[in-house]
Each structure stands twice: as structure tokens, then as C-alpha cells.
Specification:
The complex is a heterodimer of chains A (about 300) and B (about 400). Chain A is an all-alpha fold and about 300 residues long. Chain A is about 70% helix and about 5% strand. Classes of the chains: A mainly alpha (about 300), B alpha+beta (about 400).
Chain lengths: ~300, ~400
């Protein structure tokens, strides 16, 4: 069919022009604000550290060799573990919210979304400090729990991994809810009826039809939570103890305390590489969802 | 004998609005039954109650000796063809069809064989690996049917399954549904607002209005002997003649004074007594137009003088609107012979409308608002309204009503 009727030639130049113009702005944006800074970070990691705290004049692999220090596997593993657990918890908590919000009446929906977005009106640091106020050893919560006799005098509500996880989940939950809600809103809930009609239980319909139906939202939520979680440093810094240091804290420490910029840059590059993994995975998984024509049947 | 399927005094309301009122219905095994009614009449709610998506406030549901009331949808031997097909977009055609058997944990080999057979029956083998977004509306329809039938339901519910298709495809799918029913013999409960679909497919039709089934009967019964003005007006076109019995001394015909028309003969569908108020439904195709006054009327024939106001040529037939007395009558002439030389009645001509008194049917009740359901009613109001846009108060719509 297409051979017999070639596309009208007249609209080609206009299209390519406008496409180019449309792409230029985001392209420039990406170059200036993403590619260039990343390149600068990689460049810095390959320079010598100057005693003054700046960059030296010579090339050096010293910063990368220093990453072999035995502390780093421990910290990297902790960063990955805490981030993955926090991401899993965020998704698990966000799914029911998105499922219900997606089928709620339009008025109720906007109220729900507003409630989810409201915390963003307060600065992130202030919100984490608020947790500190709440959880600190002399704080109201611990005092109350102590007076009820529900915790022992030795129990602290802060400076441990649970608290770090709690505040991470609190912080990143909206980033999981919003993309999942956006996907759920577009999901045709009638499909769940169809699945039930064909014999699926409520849970079966949820897993076999709802989850695949919002798969793109799931991937987006995964990326939106996991990537910033991997980079967290304020949360472990403010509510965690020395045993909860994450990669971000090390980068901060090398930058502001040790004044070793190349080392910090090497760590940052490592973090970028780690964070790229889920993105690459998401990209690979998301790919087949669009062109399905070439796919073979699975049965 | 116990009926195959039974709805017993089902009631359903949402908030304060009663959607289904005390509805009872029985189906025989293998029957094709249509619930026909305008949108909002409660037919879809009734279907959801049968499928298990809605719970009735009161009433019970039985299918093949077991009670369905209260069971969740997945535990009912009932499958539904949804109006928008509701195919799973993330699954291929083949996987869509195999969905039910997989949930039921049938063996891999059986699923493969059954799915293959369904694809073949529906002529979809070539499209088995496509996604629902990559096939046409008619194909989606067939996949939806295959996906339901592969579970061998005892009752198949069809919720306006053809509404989303264009006319030609709808007619083809209608024949196909008929063929499928002949093949599988499953009991069909078909919900539609399209009388053509209901008439051509069904063994019986239940005409629904405002949450109540107004009449149940074969397509012929529904069309020829409508119970009330709603059924008469909703199915096809008709003329309503309202009047009073003058003389009912004869056994076969009575004489009645029709408001705005005069005295006519009326067949005694039921015993009539003088002074009784009657509501007569007279289908347009039962009326004949002639240029000359019939010299001698046959027994039980009526003739009234009229003027042609409107002629709508439709190919197979011509629809006339003629004014007689205060009434506008709708008349349909079928063109069974091709006679170009003959001058058919045209605008402004004086004609005689005649019909057999037996061809009218006495309705049990009449509701003025049902006039709005007639095909020409809208037009009529429109033509009366348009001059009022320029000047003065709108003239009262005269209508075909006396």
C-alpha cells in the first residue's frame, strides 16, 4: 500500500525543520545541565589532588586506585541495600494508593493528589529536621513511648538503620505514587472486570492485568525512587549514625572535610554508574512494550 | 420443570435511584434472549448483576439448578462480551483467548489445542500474535467472543457487543453471532438498545423501560401486539389513535370515535364496552394510500381522507406523512413492483388512507411521553420550532397526537 502512495514530499522539509527546532532546546538543556557537568566530574576524578583542596595540574589515577579501600565495598553494599529496600517499600505502599486513587471519583482524586503533593511545599531539609525533632532522644515521641513503658531506656529512635529507612520511605514515597497514579489513571479498570469474568480472583486480576497494565508507571516509579535514594546523604547524615553512612555521605565528606576533590569525583562517577544500571534495565524492559508486531506468541 | 436460568424479583438501586424494579425473568436452555431498552433503562445493571459485578439489593439468581446470588464473578459459569471488548492490551490475541483456561489451570496441551481451535473458528489464526491495538474492531469482537466461549460458559452475556462497529460490520457480526449460537448452543442473554439487533437475533425479547421489563415475547409478538405505548413506540414506528368506544354490539369489530380523526372501525382484541377509552397502535406499513375514495369498503376496512405533507423515498420503501383531520399519520409503502410511469402521491396531494381494522392493536396503557420515541417526533418538533427563532411565541406542536 505504502509503495503506491508515497508520502507527500512538500511537508518533509517543514517537518524536519520543526523537528530539529523542537529538539534543539532540550538537547541544549541536556548538554549544558547534564552531559557537561558529568564530563567535568569524570575529568576531576582523573586529576591530581592539590594540597590546597583544589585540583592539581597533572593527570592521575590515584583517586580511582583509592576506591579499592576496604570501606567502600561495605558502603556501596549498604547504599544499594538501603536504597533497594526503601524502593521496594515505596512501591509496595504506593501501589494500593495509586490503585484506589486511579478509580476514585475525579473530585476525590484531585484532593488525594493534593495531599500527596502538599509536603513538597516545605523544604526537604526542614522536613528531615522535623523527623529529627520528633525522633530525638529527648523528643516527644520517645518520651511518650518511655512513659508508656513500650520501649526501654536504652532504646533510641534515631541513629539506626530503621530510622534511615523510615525517613527515606517518607521522602521518596510521593515519587513512587505520582508516576504510578498517572499510569493507574489511564488504566481501564473495566479490564479488571473482564479478568474477574474470566475466572481470575481479585488478587489474580490485580497481578495479571493491573500490574502489567501500569508497567510503565512501575518502571518510572522504580527509577524515580531508586536513583535519588542511591544518592541520599542528608537523611543518613541527619537521622542515621556512623554505621549508616552511604555513598553520598562519603562524597560529601571527601569534598567538604577532606578537601579531596578528585576522590569525591571518582566516588560520584561510581555512583552515577550504579544509578545508570536500573535506568539501563528499565530501558531494556520497556522496549518490547511498544512494537509488539514482531514478537512471537509465548504459548 | 425448573427453568434453566431464573431471575427472581431482583431489585437494585444506586443511592436513592431505583435502577432495577422487581424484575423476574426465566430463560430456557439454549435460548437467545434480548433485553431491549433505551440507555438508562437498567438493562446493563441487570447484566452486571447476573455477571456478579453488582449485588442486587433483593432477589435471587439461579442458573442450571444452582444459586448464583452472592457469588463473585469468577465463581459463576457465566462469561461476558463487553461493549468495548475489554481485551487485555498487554497480551497477544492468542494469550487473550487463553486467559480463562490458564486461570482455570487447564493443561498446557489442552490450552494450546483449545486456543488453536478457537482461533480457527473465529478465523483469527493469522492474527494470533498481534496485540489488540493492532487489529480491527470486528476482529477485536471475534477475539472477545473466543475469549469468552473457550471457557464453555453456561450463559453468555453480551453487552451491546455490536454498538462500536459500523453498520455493515454490525450486520455481518449479527449473522456471525447467529451462526456461533447455532454451533455452540450456549444460552445467550443479549443486551442492546438496537431493536434491529434484538429482532433478528432473539428467540424472545424483553423490552425494558425505567428499570422494569414492560413486555416479554417473541419478536413478532413484541412488534405486532405491543402491550403499551412504550413498547409500540420503541420498536419501530407507529401511529397512536386515541378515542372512545361508541358501539360495541358486534362480536368482531367495534366503532370508536378517534380524537381529531373521526369514527373508525376497531378490531376487538379484547371485549370492549361503549364509552371505554381506547389506545390504538397502527403500524405505518399497515396503511395504504389511494388517490380515489374506495367505492365500497370491504368488511372491517377503514378509509379516511388525508393530504400528503411529506414524502421520504428510502429505496425499498417510501415513507409518507399525511394529515387527516388533526392528526399526522405515518404511512409506509413498500415498492414490490417497479412502475416508473405510475405517479406516486406527492406533497400536497389529496389521498385516501385505508387499512384493515384487524391491523391495529389495542394497547393496554398509553403514556403521552412515549410519543417522543417515535422516529418522526423529533422532526416534527424541529419544524415547529424553527420559525419561532425569528419571531413570536412558538406555535403549539400539534403532532400526531389529537
Amino acid at each position: 500500500m505504502s509503495e503506491s502512495r508515497p508520502p507527500p514530499v512538500t511537508c518533509r522539509p517543514w517537518r524536519s525543520h520543526s523537528e530539529w527546532a523542537l529538539t534543539a532546546a532540550p538537547f541544549l538543556w541536556l548538554i549544558v545541565l547534564f552531559a557537561a557537568p558529568t564530563a567535568v566530574v569524570v575529568f576531576m576524578s582523573l586529576r591530581e589532588a592539590a594540597p590546597s583542596g583544589g585540583l592539581g595540574d597533572a593527570w592521575s589515577l590515584r583517586a580511582w586506585r583509592d576506591l579499592a579501600h576496604p570501606i567502600y565495598p561495605v558502603i556501596l553494599w549498604r547504599t544499594l541495600r538501603l536504597s533497594l529496600i526503601a524502593t521496594a517499600l515505596c512501591l509496595a505502599l504506593a501501589l494500593p494508593v495509586a490503585f484506589l486513587a486511579g478509580r476514585a471519583a475525579p473530585r476525590l482524586r484531585s484532593i488525594l493528589i493534593l495531599l500527596i503533593v502538599v509536603p513538597f511545599w516545605t523544604n526537604f531539609l526542614i522536613r528531615v529536621f522535623a523527623w529529627r525533632v520528633l525522633l530525638q532522644p529527648e523528643g516527644m515521641l520517645r518520651r511518650a513511648l518511655l512513659s508508656f513503658g513500650w520501649i526501654e531506656e536504652s532504646t533510641l529512635l534515631m541513629y539506626n538503620e530503621w530510622t534511615v529507612l523510615l525517613v527515606m520511605v517518607y521522602t521518596y514515597l510521593p515519587f513512587a505514587i505520582l508516576p504510578l497514579y498517572a499510569a493507574a489513571e489511564r488504566f481501564d479498570y473495566g479490564l479488571l472486570d473482564a479478568a474477574r469474568d474470566l475466572g481470575a480472583s481479585a488478587a489474580g486480576a490485580f497481578c495479571r492485568v493491573f500490574l502489567p497494565g501500569i508497567s510503565r508507571g512501575l518502571l518510572a516509579a522504580l527509577a524515580m525512587v531508586l536513583i535519588p535514594a542511591l544518592g541520599s546523604y542528608v537523611i543518613p547524615d541527619l537521622v542515621g549514625g556512623p554505621g549508616q553512612e552511604m555513598l553520598g555521605n562519603k562524597i560529601a565528606q571527601r569534598t567538604f572535610v577532606d578537601r579531596n576533590l578528585p576522590h569525591a569525583a571518582a566516588l560520584a562517577t561510581l555512583l552515577i554508574a550504579v544509578a545508570m544500571l536500573p535506568v539501563a534495565a528499565a530501558f531494556l524492559f520497556a522496549r518490547p512494550a511498544r512494537p509488539a508486531a514482531e514478537e512471537g506468541g509465548t504459548s | 420443570m425448573e427453568p434453566f436460568f431464573e431471575l427472581r424479583e431482583v431489585v437494585k438501586s444506586f443511592d436513592d435511584a431505583v435502577v432495577v424494579r422487581e424484575t423476574s425473568l426465566t430463560l430456557a436452555r439454549g435460548e437467545v434472549f434480548s433485553l431491549l431498552g433505551p440507555s438508562g433503562c437498567g438493562k446493563t445493571t441487570l447484566l452486571k448483576i447476573i455477571a456478579g459485578f453488582e449485588q442486587p439489593d433483593r432477589g435471587r439468581i439461579f442458573l442450571d439448578g444452582t444459586e448464583l446470588t452472592g457469588l463473585p464473578p469468577n465463581q459463576r459459569p457465566v462469561n461476558t462480551i463487553f461493549q468495548n471488548y475489554a481485551l487485555f492490551p498487554h497480551l497477544s490475541v492468542r494469550e487473550n483467548i487463553a486467559f480463562g483456561p490458564r486461570i482455570a489451570r487447564r493443561s498446557k496441551e489442552e490450552i494450546r489445542r483449545e486456543t488453536g481451535r478457537m482461533l480457527e473458528v473465529m478465523d483469527m489464526t493469522a492474527f494470533a500474535d498481534r496485540r489488540p491495538t493492532q487489529i480491527s474492531g470486528g476482529q477485536k469482537q471475534r477475539v472477545a467472543i473466543a475469549r469468552a466461549l473457550i471457557n464453555r460458559p453456561k450463559l453468555l452475556l453480551l453487552d451491546e457487543p455490536l454498538a462500536a462497529l459500523d453498520l455493515k460490520l454490525r450486520q455481518r457480526m449479527l449473522l456471525e453471532l447467529d451462526r456461533i449460537h447455532d454451533d455452540v448452543g450456549i444460552t445467550f442473554l443479549y443486551v442492546t438498545h438496537d431493536q434491529g439487533e434484538a429482532m433478528s437475533l432473539s428467540d424472545r425479547i424483553g423490552v425494558m423501560n425505567a428499570g422494569r421489563i414492560e413486555q416479554i415475547g417473541s419478536p413478532e409478538e413484541i412488534y405486532e401486539t405491543p402491550a403499551n405505548s412504550f413498547v409500540a413506540a420503541f420498536i419501530g414506528d407507529t401511529n397512536f389513535l386515541l378515542g372512545q368506544v361508541e358501539d360495541s354490539s358486534r362480536a368482531d369489530y367495534s366503532r370508536a370515535a378517534i380524537e381529531g380523526l373521526g369514527s373508525i372501525l376497531v378490531y376487538n382484541d379484547r371485549p370492549l364496552s361503549p364509552g371505554e377509552r381506547i389506545f390504538l397502535s397502527l403500524r405505518p406499513e399497515k396503511l395504504r394510500l389511494r388517490r380515489d375514495k374506495p367505492d365500497s369498503l370491504g368488511a372491517g376496512r377503514n378509509a379516511v381522507a388525508a393530504v400528503v405533507e411529506d414524502v421520504i423515498y428510502l429505496g425499498g420503501l417510501t415513507r409518507y406523512r399525511v394529515r387527516s383531520g388533526d392528526l399526522l399519520l405515518s404511512v409506509e409503502h413498500q415498492h414490490s413492483r417497479f412502475v416508473l410511469d405510475e405517479q406516486p402521491p406527492s406533497h400536497g396531494d389529496s389521498v385516501w388512507v385505508n387499512w384493515n381494522a384487524d391491523d391495529g392493536y389495542l394497547l393496554r396503557s398509553f403514556n403521552e411521553s412515549d410519543l417522543g420515541l417515535l422516529p418522526l417526533a423529533e422532526r416534527e418538533r424541529a419544524t415547529h420550532r424553527s420559525p419561532s427563532l425569528q419571531a413570536g411565541p412558538a406555535p403549539q406542536p400539534t403532532g400526531r397526537r389529537p
